[in-house]
Design goal:
Distance between the termini: 26 Å
Radius of gyration: 25 Å
Shape: rod-shaped
Strand content: under 5%
Oligomer: single chain
Number of helices: 3
Structural class: mainly alpha
Helix content: over 70%
């Protein structure tokens, strides 16, 4: 039985690789959907008549779909960054643990 925390480097690497693949696919899908929405908004199919102008004002109130795209992009960016950030964090934890183990081993041999 181990005391403390143990990282299976192979399991962590595999999990992060799966996360990175998911994040890459999610970003591609998000970018495609966002482009499609932006295209529909830019086309303004509701027209320039009074009803169309009222529709556009209602649609774009509080930023409308473009605000949703900007907010969603921030979430997607966080998801994409999470894999590399976690990989670095675990790598630093493992390196620190190994350095500390070596330091303690040295201290114990000096006693």
């Amino acid at each position: 039985m181990r005391d403390g925390v143990y990282f299976s480097e192979r399991a962590v690497a595999a999990g992060i690789n799966v996360w990175n693949d998911m994040a890459t696919n999610l970003k591609k899908e998000w970018d495609a959907a966002a482009s499609e929405i932006e295209g529909h908004v830019a086309a303004a199919p509701w027209g320039r008549g009074a009803e169309g102008i009222r529709f556009q004002e209602a649609l774009m109130r509080s930023g409308g779909p473009l605000q949703m795209i900007r907010s969603g992009q921030r979430v997607i960016d966080q998801i994409v960054k999470a894999g590399p950030t976690l990989r670095d964090t675990i790598g630093n934890s493992v390196a620190t643990n190994q350095a500390e183990a070596a330091r303690i081993k040295k201290l114990l041999t000096e006693i």
